[in-house]
Please model this.
Amino acid sequence: MAENPLITISIPAYNLGSYLSKTLDSILNQTYQNFEVILVDDASTDHTPDTMAKYADKDQRIHTYYFQSHEGVSKARNYAIDNAKGDIIVFVDGDDLLEPKYLEVMARGLADPSVDLVAVGYNWGWRGGSGTGDQFREVSKTNAYASINRRGGDFGGYTWNKGFKMSIIRDHQIQFDESLDLAEDLLFTADYIFVSHRFLFYPGALYTKVSRSNSIIHSATWEMRSKEQVVRRHIDEMARKMQP
Model:
């Protein structure tokens, strides 16, 4: 990988109100500045598209796209994958916050060509967080995969605390399942770890998950939860076939 790799930041946006400005400000304030942002509006009905346009006018690294109908986060993230120019991709939720070193740590960890994925610590209420430490530690493939279905784990199956190599995503045609509204991130991470080999974890909390009352995780239907359980069982079944 290049010494100064380009990082693609995927952000789906849907009715984010004032949250999106704070998220974008935390990105523009990164210590590592070689990035592009692919910001996809999922047919918002509030002023989210105006916020997107304002930031795109201010910084040419921010690229916007607007869905004509509501499609869901998976389709928005897949659009970013299909259009990414970066060597690394990170998936940021448009209401969350990044510590200034988030991208720097991703680039530093993935500078080693043998490393396939980097995860960082996070803050998210009772689910985990307040991680400390500034040294990478190795995580075995077995432990990385086992953490996907472990709620509140440091490494976890979340996509937003991880940096992924675009070469692996393209080589194995990994995409988000657009039929899912929940656990789509767990399945993506499982598919990626399944074909990868070396993983690093940086314990410092560099990502803050912001809780919004109208987010999917708070408003999920019984059908969404049922699909989530199917995904979790599938991930467990994949574990039995996994090679080191």
The chain has a mean pLDDT of 90. The two ends are 23 Å apart (CA to CA). Residues 40 and 79 are 8 Å apart (CA to CA). DSSP finds nine helices and nine strands in the chain.
